[in-house]
Amino acid sequence: MSRVPDGSSLAGTAVRVSAVRVATGPTTAAPADSGAATRRSFLKVTSAAGASLLFSAALGAPVAGAAAARERRAYVLVVDGCRPGEIGSGLMPNLQVLRDGGMNFPRARSLPVMETIPNHVMMMTGVRPDRSGVPANSVYDRDEKVIRDLDRPSDLRFPTVIQRLNRNGFTTGTVLSKEYLFGIFGKRATYRWEPAPVVPVSGHAPDVFTMDAAISMVEEFDPNLVFVNLGDCDRMGHSDLTGTTLKAARQAALVDVDTQVGRFVDMLKTSGRWATSVVVVLADHSMDWSRPDKIISLQPAFDADPLLKDKVVIAQNGGADLLYWTGGADRRAAALERMREIALATPGVLSVKAPKRLRLGPNAGDLVAYCRSGWRFSDPEQYDNPIPGNHGHPATSPIPFFIGGGHRLVGKGSYSAAATTVDVAPTLGRLFGLGEPRGGYDGRSRL
Amino acid sequence: MNNRYAASRFAPWVVGLVVTSIELDRRSLLVAGATTGVAAIGVALPGEAEAASNRYFKHGVASGDPHPRSVILWTRVTPTPQATPGSGKGPRVRVRWQVARDRRFRDVVAKGSFTTSAGRDHTVKLEAKGLRPRTTYFYRFLHKGVASPVGRTKTAPAANASPRNLRFGVVSCSNLPGGYFSAYRHLARRNDLDAVLHLGDYLYEYGPNDYGEVRKPVPAREMVSLSDYRQRHAQYKQDKDLQALHAKNPFIVTWDDHEVTNDQWAKGAENHDPETEGDYLARRRRAHRAYDEWMPVRMGDSVALGDGTRLFRRLRFGRLAELSMLDLRTYRSEQATLAVTPVPSPDGSVSDPERTITGKAQMGWLKKSLREDRAQWKLIGNPVMIAPVVFPPLPNDVTKAINDVTGLLPEDGAPYNVDQWDGYTADRHEVLNHLADHGVQNTVFLTGDIHSGWACDLPLDAGTYPAESGRSVATEFVCTSVTSDNLNDITQTAPARSSLGVEAAIQANNRHVKYLNFDDHGFSVLDVTPARTQMDYYVISERTDPNATVSWTASWATKANSQAVHAVDRPVKERR
Lengths: 447, 576
Fold this sequence. Notes:
The structure holds two protein chains of two kinds.
Chain A: E1 16-22, E2 40-46, E3 52-58, E4 73-79, H1 84-87, H2 93-100, E5 103-104, H3 116-125, H4 129-132, E6 138-141, E7 146-149, H5 161-167, E8 172-176, H6 179-185, E9 191-193, H7 207-221, E10 225-230, H8 232-239, H9 246-270, E11 277-282, E12 288-289, E13 295-296, H10 299-303, E14 312-317, E15 320-325, H11 332-344, E16 349-353, E17 367-371, E18 376-377, E19 389-390, E20 401-404, E21 413-414, H12 424-432
Parallel strand pairs in A: 4-10, 4-11, 5-21, 8-9, 8-10, 13-18
Antiparallel strand pairs in A: 1-2, 2-3, 3-9, 5-20, 6-7, 11-20, 12-19, 14-15, 15-17, 16-17
Helix pairs in contact in A: 3-6, 7-9, 8-9
Chain B: H1 4-7, H2 12-24, H3 26-31, H4 46-52, E1 61-64, E2 71-76, E3 93-100, E4 108-116, E5 123-128, E6 136-143, E7 146-147, E8 151-154, E9 166-171, H5 182-188, E10 195-198, H6 226-237, H7 240-248, E11 250-253, E12 264-265, E13 268-269, H8 274-277, H9 280-294, E14 313-317, E15 321-325, H10 360-372, E16 377-382, H11 396-406, H12 425-437, E17 443-447, E18 453-459, E19 472-478, H13 487-491, H14 500-509, E20 513-517, E21 522-528, E22 532-540, E23 550-559, E24 565-568
Parallel strand pairs in B: 1-11, 9-10, 10-11, 15-16, 16-17, 17-19
Antiparallel strand pairs in B: 1-2, 2-5, 3-4, 3-6, 6-7, 6-8, 9-21, 12-13, 14-15, 18-19, 18-20, 21-22, 22-23, 23-24
Helix pairs in contact in B: 5-7, 6-9, 10-12
């Protein structure tokens, strides 16, 4: 039985827990996080702006964050789809101050496939997709015979740093603006915010609401780790279809996300948390734009080939196509050779890789095709991907990655080490003194 | 070859443009008649005589191509007075060498001996191994108990090191008859360099008064034979300013055209006449042989003489920077039709995908080194400018459309100088698109060749720059010449006056060109940190004055991940 909060707010904060409902069972798909409570409490919180926010919490989670003094706090803020150069563009003064006052890793990169879900998973596991089971946003599920997003809690097969922190007596929170991220991380964190309100086309909550939730979560529950995804930059890149206003919309999103991060930092400073905080800011991938005349559709080309016809399924991931051979094993080698040949002969295709080389694991299919900068995939049909802003291909691998905060472990300066998204979990592990997971990390601490 | 303009690295269009600008500018017109009035001086200078006082080591000492655990050491021994460079005379002799941690050689950490002979013009070139990364060493040679001048060198940081800083001198285009090497002297006074990058035109082939009248070239004819090339190298190596710079810092060099002859390409050169000068490739082999003998550089896989002429190579400086030195002469296709003054070249063949400036093997090697991202800054030692300089730069789509009708226009607009990457736009597209396709960040081209200082963004499409489709994917810093003619030398107008018109015209039509200085000689200093690279442009007061002074004139930087240059208001502070 979870403790019932008394409704009082923390001194000095404007957040108030106004109501609580105790759930008696799961309300979504079957939980996969081992050891976690199958029952959750729902905590309704009123933010400073007066909005009502609904958090869910693990059974037995403390409701008042002030209960224990925090010596270590970590916040991972993912500015989804941000290009590294955009931080210094003048549009993002708060992020620039945070970057220049901390440890900057200008050589940082997203890892294949340069998509949202796999890179968020890499951040929180510290391992590559061949170990986590999450190589892309969209895969062909051979068992279910369907192309689907990897948005189920059971899709993630490696212990996250979230779960490992919880096991070690720390508390954690997730504030993920995208529905599929909320989906895959599920109920792993001690406290979870379900994105709301969600923009129907993009499936994400605008940053202002996301940040309201992040700030409220910190002020109310003060978890040791909060993992935040800010989706506007990415979604403004994706969902603006006109082309002409793309730049303006993108810039507005950059300015806005900067304002939101500024609010968060202000909260840490005014609430006295700054000195014990490590703030990791990075992107999951970058962004690349293409015109309607630079679209690649491989499916028709495969289907025109007698060997491949109806035997290749494509899971399209914007700048990367995952290619699955569904024919007989005896013809697989010949088929892959043919697929490679056809793909490489198609204008706009940059390269075709074996998933093993990219450490993607079997979920990623038999081959991965990348597009060039300025192009995108649209499969299986030419109209399946109408959005101009895409990622997944190597052009979109450079990301901002910096560590700010007042914690003594946070240094100052630029570092030429090749940081990647898989370094986030080891960095958190170092801060909180966690041992390595089974098999070790694939990344390394940047503290 | 007696045409001064053709001999210059300026294409005729530049001269044409500046004449046009002078016509528009009465003040310039008035000064255009003034000459600098420098008489030819052929006698040895006090400094050169001083160098000659050392009986056995008249040509100084040099080091080059620093690796983390090794560096190349070089000298030339003159065992007998008859054993002059290029003479083919003199005995086979053994020279000892030492590397120490201290200037007085109390702590010798490596030593050995090297046998040389007239067969290699008595040059000594070896790789000192077993050294420590990023460490300053002193070295010298010994012959019959006589020690050479002491050289100082520095190894590169370990491959897995993350240095906070690297600093390089950057020079190019040092024509000895054109003036005195004051730029080298002033650069040699600095104590804070990791190495000096020489981006080509280290020496020039011309005969007396063909290109510069301040000093007389040796031999007194265009270098064509092996003996000619050796003698010319020897003359340069006796210059006291160049000796000082070699003795102070390791060099990392590449060649441009004049190390062989003007505007050379894979099978010929503008300044080569097969009728009178014989087979071009035979001449080039002689030039490469002399270069291999006389320069502290790896050609092929090692320092061994004759093990190859592959000059394009990669040097690593830990995780901070990787330097790819290019050879853009040996494998290139013949230049497209040169422009007729002052009309830019309308020759569409500059975009012919069959034509190359790098050659296939070097292009593959360059793309691989860029893609693999072994270090943060991908520095490219680039003998000729890669930024498009065109008139007018039209969007690629427009150019393509016009070409559908006329087949006339080169894809990046009409270039002014088809001897640089502008004359090989297919290769440039391949490199720049490669950077975009692979998300390669922090590529900086370091360039010589054109006797002027530039700082440029490198747009994917100059016509749509700086929009997304024409965004910059790298930057380029071009250093000016040590002595070789620049605009006001050619037009003999006052500095800072003649070139304003042409600078403005170029920048108006090429928005990615942010800085342009056509008037000065000097050197640059490139400072590299994880946060940015910065190029400081220093200029000398007067190339005809052996005691010329130096002053700082401009600084431009590229912030990490910006792919854009910006002005900086002061140079990096020199470390003492």
